[in-house]
Amino acid sequence: MLVADSESQTVLTATENGFGKRTAIAEYTRHGRGTQGMIGIQTTERNGKLVGAVLVGDEDEVMLISTGGVLIRTKVKQIREQGRSTQGVRLIDLDEGTKLSSIERVAEKEEEEENGQQQ
Questions:
Q1: What are the tens digits of pLDDT across the range 56-74?
Q2: Who's near 91: CB < 8 A, 6+ residues apart?
Q3: What is the pTM of this model?
């Protein structure tokens, strides 16, 4: 579950074969308890299973982490915004036998200092 601060944020979803997309928060309608859920990204053999979803803004950066130990930091605004039921675009080129294992929003230093997490 993701909790958005504002409608200006987007949901960035990523799949194990390195595909992903941004979707406007307004495309996710509200549901009550006991509903069937909502498709956030179409999963096929081409793009694989869902790895993660994070709330991001246009100025944020994300870190893509593969099972082979490759880390890629990329700006969110470089990822195309698409509808909910699409397969997405390639976020990372993966070597044979490796998968995308995680996606995380990169916290800026100022944000960490505000939250008292500076070490």
A1: 988 899 999 999 889 999 9
A2: 14, 18, 19, 20, 64, 74, 79, 100
A3: 0.79
